[in-house]
Amino acid sequence: MLNSFPIWVVAALAHLPVSFSRGSREGGGVTPKVNQFDSLKPITQQALRKYMADPEDTRRRLAAMIPNIPQDQAALDRIHQKLGGLTVDLSVSSINPSVVNAKAGVSPYLLQGDIVVTDDQLKQMEDEYKRFGGRKKRQAAIPIKKWPQNTIHYYFHNVSAKSQQAVAAGLKVIQQQTCINFVKSSTAANRIRVINADGCWSPIGMKGGEQDLSLESNGCDLQGTAATCTAAQNQIKCLNAGMKNPRNCSTCICPVGYAGATCNQRPNNGGKTIIPTANWQTMTITVGNSASSANTWRPSYMIKTYWFTVPTGRKLEMKITGMQNSHCNYGCSFASLEFKYGPYPELVDPKYCCPEHLNKVYSSTRNPTVLNAHNEYYFSTFTIQYRLVAASG
């Protein structure tokens, strides 16, 4: 439910890793160069050795449990080509945490490329893996402890002011929408030390004492998940797949594209509500900040939301006729138009950012039909055309 931030925050809340590693393979995993661990930053080595006595042994054991799936870029490129090649814009570097970790050379020492596991956790995972004859390769449970009293203490070690600001913004949103409290403290008995090391990674849950959360200065993405509301369940009914806010059960946490106490309003973010006609109409959407530097990432997405009124018995048709600074890539992580025509408002519908998406007609009978324009880098401009037709047409 939470929006995406270009920074990792705390795996103690929710951890949604995405595996992607570059290099040769060993047992389905990744084989780093000899003594690759020694080439990592001293702060990275020092932090990881808190959890693993022998990093190279950890690497080999993790590799043995990873499924035999393509993990090198060439294999992924071949898969993408089979799915339908896109004209990927390589002018902007990816900030996907798994890509950052692969480039930093730290991913082979992490579970699924971004999770730190202790020697004890790894042993328990191996035991479970063996019990199921290797059939539960990616579902072995990681033993974790919860933070007491729903409170997580943290402090910054060698992190830039800009990264600190981004982390604070992310924590604020998570705290507003969950039962978790964040308190800045470098002296609490159990605390997280936020560091600028190689890559973006952390343990899951509370280890006890001081533990590390690595945020390489290049940045990483995080998506948190909201806690379940257990009190005053019948005080409010959330619409459009919203969920009760555990901080305030008289309000709802809304999917992107919806707002208001019950998620029945359009967000006040620069978009507008549109009443289409039977004739093609043209609209230009610019989202982002043209005054910002072309080389600077913002700490969070800028989003504009448009609602299209679709009467019963009618269908909205829409096509994208122009794009500027959309930075085509798989997943459209830099900028996109999200045309929400699917039946589940809480899910992300297909995003469009590539030349191959131009002049294709997309349709929806949802009322309203939501169009989210998002940008995280500089600014982007999209030109669309839309009209109403008979629903049976």
From TrEMBL:
Alphabetical list of Pfam families matching this protein: Astacin
KW Signal (keyword) present: yes
Signal peptide start-end: 1-21
Entry's transmembrane regions: none
Gene3D superfamilies in the cross-refs: Collagenase (Catalytic Domain)
Keywords (A to Z) from UniProt: Disulfide bond, Signal
Peptidase M12A domain ranges (all copies): 140-227
Domain of life: Eukaryota
BP-aspect Gene Ontology terms: proteolysis
Keyword Ubl conjugation on entry: no
Coiled coil regions in record: none
GO MF, one example: zinc ion binding
Listed name of the protein: Peptidase M12A domain-containing protein
Record lineage: Eukaryota, Metazoa, Ecdysozoa, Nematoda, Chromadorea
